[in-house]
Design brief:
Elements (H helix, E strand, L loop, with lengths): L2 H9 L13 E10 L2 E15 L6 E8 L2 E8 L5 E8 L27
Antiparallel strand pairs: 1-2, 1-5, 2-3, 3-4
Amino acid sequence: MNLMKVVESEFSVEKNLPKFSAGDTITVHYKIKEGNKERIQQFRGVVLQRRGTGINETFTVRKMSGNIGVERIFPIVSPFIEQIDINKYGRVRRSRIFYLRELTGKKARIQEKRF
């Protein structure tokens, strides 16, 4: 029996987050502390990757702020994540879409998954 898995299962926290993957456009509602005040900031962008398993799982979200690309890495089990909304499901052929960093304009569009 792996000791790390025993510790992870001991401290695991069940969060009911929606299922999303690379290429999806999501909005992450993130708690921010400023002094003694607390507010919720929204970070909307495209998921570039999901990596890790269990308590170590993270996902990377990229958004364009003006002409500058901003990426942020969020841990899945973070107590600061209030909720995650899925705005669009994207259709991509790989699980890590780092090629999106070099693309701009219409080339950076991701085809939407239809149901």
